[in-house]
Design a protein that fits this description.
Layout lengths: L1 H15 L1 H5 L1 H7 L2 H4 L11 H8 L5 H11 L17 H13 L2
């Protein structure tokens, strides 16, 4: 419940800052994401098309991805952990929404 609340707050921030939402691909390129991920092929981590397919039917997909982006995750896509990323909640939300659009 708390994560959903924070995700909604972040979405409200994107509504007031559409440039951030439109710039998610630049965030992907400029943050550590591109070191392990690509949009359509698996590198170290899963392809974003696969992530989008996996989470597209979940009600809190954005919140789930925001949590993984900000806090890291272990065991969701294999043995290698995803480390936490140095992003704001607004940036993580923009990235999560962009990833989900890749499916």
């Amino acid at each position: 419940m708390k994560k959903s609340f924070y995700a909604l707050l972040a979405l409200a921030g994107l509504a007031t800052n559409p440039a951030l939402a439109q710039d998610a691909e630049s965030l992907f390129q400029n943050k550590a994401c591109a070191a392990c991920h690509a949009t359509d092929v698996q590198l170290v981590g899963p392809a974003f098309t696969d992530v989008a397919k996996e989470y597209s039917d979940q009600d809190d997909a954005v919140g789930i991805l925001v949590d993984s982006i900000m806090n890291g995750s272990t065991g969701k896509w294999g043995q290698l952990p995803m480390p936490p990323n140095n992003v704001t909640e607004e940036e993580a939300t923009a990235l999560a929404e962009w990833v989900l659009e890749q499916g």
